[in-house]
Amino acid sequence: MTALLPSTTTALRRWARVLMAPAVVFALLASTAVAQAEDETVGIAGGPANETGPDGRSRFSYSADPGQTVADRFVVRNTGTTEQTVTVFGSDAYNTNDGAFALLETGDQPVDAGSWVTFAGAPSAEATLAPGAQQVLDFTVTVPADATPGDHAAGIVVSAQAAEGQVVVDRRVATRLYVRVSGPLSPALTISSIAASQTQGWNPFSGPVDITVTVQNTGNVALAADVSASVTSWFGMAAGSTAHEELPELLPGTTREVAFRVPSVARWGYLKPVVQLDPKASTDATAPGGLQQVVRDTSLVAVPWVLLGLVVVVVGFVLGARWRRRYLTRQAEAWAEHTREEARREAQAGTSAGAEVAG
Q1: Same-domain pairing of 71 and 155
Q2: Structural domain boundaries, residue 297
Q3: Which terminus of the chain has a lower count of CB atoms within 10 Å, N or C?
Q4: 233-286: pLDDT as tens digits
């Protein structure tokens, strides 16, 4: 075996340290770059403002006449750690199928209150913000001369688009904007349809009742509602507890299907599910007045099939027992009659034999 001399070993170790030093430095630089990349965040925010910044309002809400122009301010902020270029614009609002408040996609053109919003005469404004910076933007809302009375819903959107690989990511935040155009107001919620069913569970005496209603905002005012769902039975007796729920705001012209569940409803054969709507304006909105309660009901056959089957079995057993008892009684009476008849015949035969002997 050949062994390295001490001087040669020391030299090799020295060269190894020299060669490894750049690799260590490169690894440290790479890990630092990754850590910095991971620390970078993208964040945007916006909302109602005064001349210096946010003013505490949660939404924009105006009352205006047709043809009137309202001026206001919007602040956009960069809450991330990288410079951001954002676009601010107005968009029309609508309700999703589950009742949520939503706005059009970034590329869609508004045709209602979203199109009334302009920034220095343009439909949008652009701002480039350093991390932590904010900018206050002046805008106006110009109500068309032919605008219909009632609530028109929109939103002011902050959009930050950036390419991530081959995908363009659109990060958006928005603030609601409502314009109540002067004129006759007709706040109205209606229940256009109602259906109900009772679930057959393990309990033969009760079960939950599911009620589905179609609610429509047939007026021109955005309204929410407090909803109560209950079930009564014969002579108006309560058949279970009352379920309560808050219905989110429905914009004018919106239709929504809503489902409620009333638990532990007694199976009394006949049930009357009832839904009651108490319309109300949202917390930050002006109450329109003249809100009418809405009540709708339907009927439901709720037969306790398990209990009914048990009753049928018991009744069948009782009737069978009675029939068997009568059958056995008739059999016993027939046997007794047969026995008596046999006894009579034997007695007559004995009498005849005695007479013949005596003769």
Answers
A1: yes
A2: 189-307
A3: N
A4: 999 999 988 999 899 999 999 999 999 899 989 888 899 999 999 999 876 777
